[in-house]
Automatic annotation (TrEMBL):
A Pfam family of this chain: ATPgrasp_YheCD
Protein's recorded name: YheC/YheD family protein
SUPFAM superfamilies from the UniProt entry: Glutathione synthetase ATP-binding domain-like
Domain DUF8042 as annotated: residue spans: 10-108
Coiled-coil spans in chain: none
Protein's organism: Pallidibacillus thermolactis
Gene3D superfamilies named among the record's database cross-references: ATP-grasp fold, B domain
Length: 677
């Protein structure tokens, strides 16, 4: 088994490396006098430094204390000069103070990676990647990993055992796929990404322990929105509207005779429609198929197709980019970060479609050519100038999009176009683009970048990795509570509802102190899911005092809401931490317990007669047999929701209800004879 590095140091390194990368980019922005975007990057550096301070305090690590104080002063000084717009001073601070100090801090947490074989895990949440990836890609990844002396395996969430820190993954042995136990890898190349709040509990926990290569950038509208808000490169975007009703389509067509309908989450040119207006007549194209529509038919089609699911389509001005032979084309620039974490153009090529279609996607029957030959043949004496401009734009645009996503991206597929007037346009940017014809070139950068993250312990994140929590949820960034000083080796956290802070909670605190165990209680609102910290309440001098504390070693579950809608995410968050209560729901089902005991045949003499209520007649029959019965919920405690019924005479029954009288015709209650009393 590999020598695992100290997880505490990993958490610090991941932030320092991200700060260093952002600082280098910030210096470039300052040189270019781009103060607007400098503020954005500077903010990410400040956030990173705040996270380091929080983590080191909670982990009782004091490495680089003097350097950290220097960085804090550098940040304050830089902020003042940034407000004044003093370019000279800003460059001086960056070059001679801030960047050197961040590098010095990095040295305090570096470890020796020499002669170490790194392990790369290729991951997809719901299914093993080898079942969905092209074989050429998996083989290229395996080949490149072997070249770099790295071990590689493929796995899904179903293969992960967090408690044992083991993964039962697939790997190729002697040319055949076989299952094998692996320790947690040094880095994870995740094949697919999901939007915020939808990651599985396994993935969320893996992301806390291991660097991931790939992060989401949102749908087509989200990227467009980010570019417009940033101001830069917004001129590359064709006018568009998200379709929320028929009026948006009709008004758009008043100003545009040609339009394209694109799904916000589409791929490979699927479900794209081109509409051409000619008076009250419209021609609708879906790839090479077309049909004529009058205004009534058009409106019906919009309702049936585009508005079938609201907010799933955008309408965009059509960009007329065609070859001399009237074939639609665009340029795909596949860019990746390499083994040094720097952006490179892996491959750039034209995609040329059928002249009867508006689509240039290769997956839709298009073709490709050599990029230089294409530009020479299509743009004559301007070909070399356009190509040079295209290469530079691809890199600059990539840097900008990466910056807008917290410098967390690893690869992009940029779809660019040049119209008949020589104007450049951006159709869209995709993560994880198709690379049918250059899998080996892609694998070189995929493996190289993965190893770069592993060696430097860089944990990137972006806004899609941050949960959108309620306003009253605890967040360490908005609190100035003290860090808990834990005196003992073991920490127990009692998870409770807000109404269950009582004598039992206090008694547990006393017993824990007697047993030399740290103890605190916390509610669901006391968890900072993004930072992995808790506002724990400690019993000090006969009162509960809130302090910031890491997740406990074991959880005493008094909340008892596992499996209940709206609370599952809490238990998923603590995957891998022992929890006392394994039951689903806040109580067990009594009927199921009675049925199981009865089926054993051992406890017939002591089981109190019972019957599930399926109709009102069941209650009458039970009263006839036993005179006194109790009606109570299948799930819940005996003290809540029960009704005592006593037979008085042929016309009278006596009722005593702990709660207001319930509907006894439902199947959620059961009758039991009064012997229980």
């Amino acid at each position: 088994m590999k020598n695992q590095p100290d997880p505490k140091l990993i958490q610090v390194r991941k932030i320092i490396d991200t700060m260093l990368e952002a600082s280098e980019h910030l210096r470039t922005l300052i040189k270019n006098k781009d103060l607007k975007n400098s503020i954005f990057i500077f903010g990410s550096i400040v956030q990173g430094f705040e996270s380091i301070e929080i983590f080191l305090k909670t982990s009782k690590l004091d490495r680089g204390l003097k350097t950290r104080k220097n960085i804090e002063q550098n940040i304050l000084y830089f902020a003042k000069e940034l407000e004044r717009g003093n370019i000279t001073k800003l460059l001086e601070i960056m070059q001679f103070s801030l960047i050197p100090n961040i590098r010095k801090l990095k040295g305090n947490f570096d470890d020796d990676n020499k002669d170490r074989q790194f392990i790369i895990g290729v991951y997809l949440d719901h299914v093993n990647p080898i079942e969905v990836l092209p074989e050429a890609r998996t083989l290229a990844l395996i080949k490149e990993a072997k070249k770099r002396n790295a071990e590689i395996f493929f796995f899904s969430s179903n293969d992960v055992n967090l408690k044992e820190k083991q993964i039962y993954g697939m790997t190729k042995i002697d040319g055949k796929w076989q299952k094998k136990d692996f320790p947690l890898p040094d880095v994870i190349n995740n094949v697919g990404v999901v939007t915020k709040g939808r990651q599985s509990s396994i993935e969320r926990n893996l992301r806390k322990l291991i660097p991931f290569t790939t992060f989401a950038i949102g749908d087509k509208f989200y990227l467009v929105k980010k570019l417009v808000e940033s101001g830069k490169y917004a001129h590359l975007l064709a006018p568009f509207k998200v379709v929320t009703d028929i009026d948006i389509v009709l008004k758009f067509l008043e100003h545009n005779d040609q339009a394209v309908f694109k799904p916000l989450r589409g791929a490979r040119g699927e479900n794209i429609y081109y509409l051409e207006k000619n008076g009250r007549k419209h021609t609708l194209y879906n790839h090479t198929k077309k049909k004529q529509l009058d205004i009534e038919a058009l409106e019906k089609w919009v309702y049936d197709v585009i508005l079938k699911r609201k907010n799933t389509y955008m309408i965009q001005k059509y960009i007329n980019a065609r070859t001399k032979s009237n074939e639609p084309f665009d340029i795909r620039a596949h860019v990746q970060k390499d083994g040094e974490g720097k952006w490179q153009i892996t491959k750039i090529y034209p995609r040329i479609g059928n002249k009867k279609s508006i689509l240039s996607n290769i997956s839709r029957g298009g073709r490709t050519e050599d990029i230089e030959s294409f530009f020479e043949s299509q743009f004559d004496n301007k070909g070399s100038l356009y190509l040079k401009k295209l290469l530079q734009l691809s890199m600059d645009l990539t840097w900008h999009i990466d910056k807008l996503h917290g410098l967390a991206l690893d690869e992009l597929g940029l779809d660019l176009a040049i119209d008949n007037n020589g104007r450049f346009w951006l159709h869209e940017a995709n993560i994880g683009p198709q690379t049918t014809y250059h899998e080996e070139e892609r694998a070189v950068n995929t493996i190289g970048y993965a190893l770069y993250l592993a060696k430097n312990k860089i944990f990137h994140t972006n806004e899609f990795e941050i949960l959108n929590l309620p306003k009253d949820q605890f967040s360490i960034k908005t609190n100035d509570l003290d860090i808990a000083k834990l005196e003992h080796d073991i920490t127990v956290g009692m998870l409770v509802g807000e109404e269950e802070i009582n004598e039992l909670t206090i008694a547990c605190a006393y017993v824990a102190n007697y047993e030399n165990v740290n103890f605190f209680y916390f509610t669901p609102k006391d968890i900072d899911f993004n930072e992995g910290l808790i506002r724990g309440h400690f019993y000090i001098d006969h009162k509960w005092v809130p302090k910031i504390v890491k997740y406990p070693d074991v959880i005493y579950d008094r909340l008892r809401l596992r499996g209940v809608k709206g609370f599952d995410f809490i238990y998923q968050e603590f995957e891998g931490i022992p929890i006392t209560n394994e039951f689903y729901g806040n109580s067990i089902n009594k009927l199921k317990v009675y049925d199981r005991l009865k089926n054993t045949g051992v406890f017939d003499d002591i089981i109190i007669p019972y019957k599930k209520i399926e109709r009102l007649k069941d209650i009458k029959n039970f009263i006839d047999n036993y005179n006194k019965i109790i009606i109570k919920p299948e799930v819940g405690s005996f003290a809540n929701g029960w009704i005592y019924v006593k037979f008085l005479d042929t016309k009278r029954l006596s009722f005593f209800a702990q709660q207001p009288f319930m509907d006894c015709s439902t199947s959620q209650v059961d009758c039991q004879s009064e012997k229980i009393l």
